[in-house]
Each structure stands twice: as C-alpha cells, then as structure tokens.
C-alpha cells in the first residue's frame, strides 16, 4: 500500500511469471486483469469486541481487545453501509461480545457476504445457543432499516471453544432463504452459509469468463471441474452437447451448485455435481471414461502428490488450473512434466497485497515439444 497501483500490478505480474517461467511453452501471458483499488471486497469477517453497549467490529489487538474497523476502505458500497451500522444493531439487540482475556460473553464473530443485488448473507457466531432470541431481534431490527442492504440469509453458528477458530460445526439458518444469489452476468451462483466464493466479485467474474473462453476455444466434449465449490466454473462451461461434472467434498456446496444450475435451461442437461474428494474421484475413475479437459481450483496448498501424478499419466490433453499461490502451482507442475503452460493470466483478486490469483491452460506435449493439442489454442 502506498505504491501506485500500476506498479503493484506490474510487480505481481513479474513475480508470478518468474515463478512459472520453467513451465511455459512460449510467452503465454495475457494482460493482467486489474481490480478496483478500493471498495472491492464482498466479504467482512468481523471479530466483535468492546462492550454490550459499545461493541466494536473488526479485529483484536495484541491484548485481545477489540479494534474497530467499521470504516475499512476495502468493502463494497453496500457492505460498507452494513458494517458501519452493525455496532448499533448489535447494541440494540443486547448481544454481549465475547471477551477473550476473561473468557466471558457470547458474541464472537459476525461474517457478512454482499451480493451484486445489494443483499446480505449474515452469520452470527456465538459461544452458546442462549442468545438465539437476541439474534432474532437483530435480524428483525436489520430488516426495519431501508437504508441497509436486504438481509436475505441469516444464521447462527455455534463455536464454544476458547480458540482462534472462526466458526464451529453447528449452524442454524433463521430465514426462509438458505442461499444468497450471486449474479454474475447471465449466470447466478447460490452461496450457502458455508460456501466458498472469491472475495472480489468483479475480478471473479472476469476469471470465470476467461476460463470459459479458453475452454470454448478447445471445445472439449467432456469436462471435470475438480474442487468445484458452488459450481462457478462448471456452470459457466455448461453448453448443449457438453458433459460437465463438478466434484466437491462439501455436500452443502454441491446442493448450492445444483441450485446454480437450475436457470441454465438446455445447457444444464449435461451438467451434474458429485459430492466427493477431488483426488479420490479422479483416482477412482479407471472404470469411467476420462474427460477431454480437467479444471482444478485447489486451496492454497495445491493439489498434493497423488492428483498431479494421476494427471501426468492420464493422457488428458488439457488442464485448466486456477491458483491462488503460484509457488504451489509450480510445485504441482514439477510432478506433471508432460504439460506446459500455453495460456496464462493474472487476476488481481487481492489488490493492495502481494496475494494473487492466476489461471493457466496446461497442454500435454511429448518429447519436450508441444504436440498438436496445444496448437488448438490460437
């Protein structure tokens, strides 16, 4: 921060390209996709501190006391309004913040997600269920505020442990709606309370469009989308005559992905979602017809050892890899020497930081030179 944005973006491009340099076929890089410099974040993960009558929302300081961040410049406009109003709403509901040093109190976190249609998914993390009525009061007070984004989904999450853990296993949805629609152009994804979605809606939309364009150029008859989450890539790739299988270990995310597919019409006929571990699904595919193209979007730690080794021996001509850590992408490519990067683009999902998102097309080659499959990309 403090460095001009154009220089930030250029430095990220150099760093990521340098990390992947030994794995590219030629110069595969398109221009990086920039982000708004501020007001881009669709999520707020807020630690609640302070007191019952004067709560803070933000982070904790070194002594475990609340530091207020309600006017952070990262939030989208609607989310900014919601965060600014939240302390007054919490105080009005009579919720007591959890005090880390004394281990007293109930309210630990509030987790907000904002949609392009100015709606909110709000998760209230409590130590115990005794404050359920007060959370209900909070929901009703929010809904009486026409100046705030619409509260479409609200839930209580229980996290009883005194530990630096954001959420617990038990969750109760308080609203008739259980998913937050995230409209991305002609596609609408549905986010459940535990669903993963990129923090930057503008750049995420560009990422999905770019990958869909690359895949359409290659025109595969069948695609696996591994680590598919709520179906972001899979739904964007659905097309008449194409078989697309999304694989995700979270059953809730798979249910949300199914809802995301509902509005696609005939394009959804070849689209299906499976609840399974990505590696287990791929390694168990010996009895199945293997796809023409695989998309992987793993967590920061990458694919691990077994999935890259399987891809290396699979004979699949193309892999699209979306990564939030070029270093682990490079490590995975070391286990996949038959592939080279033939298309690549940086997506500045996290401006004002050194973090990045990068998407690459990997094309199989033989004998150290690119085969005819790679030439299919203009």
TrEMBL record:
Leading EC class: transferase
Gene3D superfamilies cross-referenced by the UniProt entry: 2.40.50.1070, Vaccinia Virus protein VP39 (3.40.50.150)
Taxonomy, superkingdom: Bacteria
Keywords assigned: Methyltransferase, S-adenosyl-L-methionine, Transferase
One Pfam match: tRNA_U5-meth_tr
EC number(s) reported in the record: 2.1.1.-
GO molecular function: rRNA (uridine-C5-)-methyltransferase activity
Transmembrane segments: none
Statement: the UniProt record of this protein carries the keyword S-adenosyl-L-methionine: yes
Residues at which S-adenosyl-L-methionine binds: 198, 227, 248, 297
GO biological process: rRNA base methylation
Active-site residues from the entry: 324
Protein family membership: Belongs to the class I-like SAM-binding methyltransferase superfamily. RNA M5U methyltransferase family.
Protein name: 23S rRNA (Uracil-5-) -methyltransferase rumB
Origin species: Serinicoccus hydrothermalis
């Amino acid at each position: 921060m403090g460095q001009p944005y154009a220089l930030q973006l250029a430095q990220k491009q150099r760093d990521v390209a340098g990390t992947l340099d030994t794995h590219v076929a030629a110069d595969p890089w398109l221009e990086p996709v920039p982000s708004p410099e501020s007001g881009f974040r669709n999520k707020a993960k807020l630690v609640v501190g302070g007191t019952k009558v004067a709560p803070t929302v933000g982070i904790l300081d070194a002594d475990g006391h609340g530091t207020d961040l309600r006017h952070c410049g990262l939030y989208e406009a609607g989310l900014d309004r919601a965060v600014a109003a939240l302390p007054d709403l919490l105080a009005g509901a009579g919720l007591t913040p959890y005090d880390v040093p004394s281990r007293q109190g109930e309210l630990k976190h509030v987790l907000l997600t904002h949609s392009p249609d100015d709606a909110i998914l709000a998760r209230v993390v409590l130590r115990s269920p005794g404050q359920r009525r007060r959370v209900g009061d909070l929901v009703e007070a929010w809904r009486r505020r026409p100046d705030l984004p619409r509260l479409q989904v609200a839930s209580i999450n229980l996290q009883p442990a005194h530990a630096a853990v954001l959420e617990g296993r038990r969750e109760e949805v308080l609203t008739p709606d259980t998913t937050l629609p995230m409209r991305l152009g002609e596609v609408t994804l549905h986010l459940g309370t535990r669903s993963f979605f990129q923090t930057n809606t503008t750049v995420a939309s560009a990422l999905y469009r770019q990958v869909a364009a690359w895949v359409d150029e290659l025109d595969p008859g069948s695609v696996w989308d591994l680590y598919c989450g709520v179906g972001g890539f899979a739904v964007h790739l659905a097309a008449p005559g194409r078989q697309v299988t999304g694989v995700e270990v979270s059953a809730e995310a798979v249910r949300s992905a199914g809802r995301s597919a509902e509005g696609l019409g005939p394009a959804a006929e070849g689209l299906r979602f499976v609840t399974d571990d990505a590696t287990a699904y791929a390694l168990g595919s010996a009895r199945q017809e293997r796809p023409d193209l695989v998309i992987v979007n793993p967590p920061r730690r990458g694919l691990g050892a077994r999935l890259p080794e399987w891809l290396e021996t699979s004979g699949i001509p193309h892999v699209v890899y979306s990564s939030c850590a070029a270093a682990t992408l490079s490590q995975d490519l070391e286990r996949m020497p038959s592939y080279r990067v033939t298309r690549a683009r940086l997506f500045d999902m996290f401006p004002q930081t050194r973090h990045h998102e990068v998407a690459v097309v990997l094309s199989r080659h033989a004998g150290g030179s690119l085969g005819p499959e790679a030439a299919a990309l203009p």
